[in-house]
Amino acid sequence: FVEIRNHRKMLKIQDLRKVYKKTVALQGVSFSVESKSAIGLIGDNGAGKTTLIKCISGLVAPTSGSVYFNDVNLIKNPKYIHNAVGALLEGARNLYNFLTVDYNLNYFGYLNQLSSKEISDRKAYLLKLFDAEKYKDQPVNELSRGTQQKIALMVTLMKNPQLLILDEPTLGLDLIATMRMTDLLRQIICEEQKTVILISHDMTLVSSLCDRVVYLKNGKVDFDEQINSIVNENIYEVKIKADHSMEDEIENFDFPFRMEDGIYVLEVNDMDRMMKNRILKENIISIEKQVNDLAHFIRMRGL
Q1: What is the phi/psi pair of residue 206, to 5°?
Q2: What is the pTM of this model?
Q3: How far apart are CA 105 and CA 188, in angstroms?
Q4: Which of 36, 42, 65, 118 has the greatest count of CB atoms below 10 A from its CB?
C-alpha cells in the first residue's frame, strides 16, 4: 500500500449529522484525515458514503456537526473547499463525451480559474505523465472505458487539488485496465503527495492504495482501523461435500462457513492447517482464491 507519513490533520469531521426529511443519512460521524495520507471509505450502498462526501465537498450542508479543512470551518466558509478538492466521479461522469480530450482539459482548467499559462503547463505535464498525448485530439466517446477513466482523472487533477476524492475509480474496468489504473493512482499519490479519500468495494484496490480504512454502517462509523489489521489477501473458498459426520470437524475448525445447496463452503486463510485435517481434505470438491471485495470482507468480519 501507499504510505506517506505526515501527522498534520488536513480534514477533521466532528459529530456530522444529516437528515433528509425523515431519512437519517449520517448519525454523528467523526474522524480525521492526515495530510498526505490515503484512507479507504467503505460500506454498503446506503451507508452514507455519498452524503458524507457531499458534505466534505460543500455540495450539501449538514444538519449539524462540523467539517474543518486546514483548520477552516467549511460550514461557515463553504467556498473555501472548492479549489482544494478534486473528485473523480463514478463512471467518468466529470467528462464531456463529445469534446476532445484537449477541450475537456482546457474547459476544466478555465472552470477552475487557472491562467492560460497554468493550463498549458499543467496539461502538458498530465498528458506526459498519463502517456495520453496520442489521445489529445480524440473525442472522449471514441476512447476505451479504461482510457476514459484515465482522462477523467486528468481532468480532476487539472487544478492540482490538495484533497483527491476517488469514487469507484476502477468500476467497470477489466483486469488489465484495473491494474493500470491502480499503478497510475499509486504514482499520482506518491509523486504529487496527495491526500486521498478512496471509495471502493474492491478491497484489493483499497489495500493497494490506503493504509487506513473507515467503515460506515447505517450512517455511523462502525470502525476506523489500519489496513493491515483487517485485510488478508490470502483467503480461499473451499467447497466440501456435506456429511453430517463432518459437522463437528467444521464447527471446531474456527473458520467462517456457510451451506450452499447441501455443500459446506469454508473461507480459509490457513491452507496448511486445512490440509492437515484428513476428514476435510478427503471431501474437498474445489479450492478457489477468494475475491477480496467488500461483500467478502463484511462476511469475514461478521458485520
Answers
A1: -60, -45
A2: 0.76
A3: 17
A4: 42
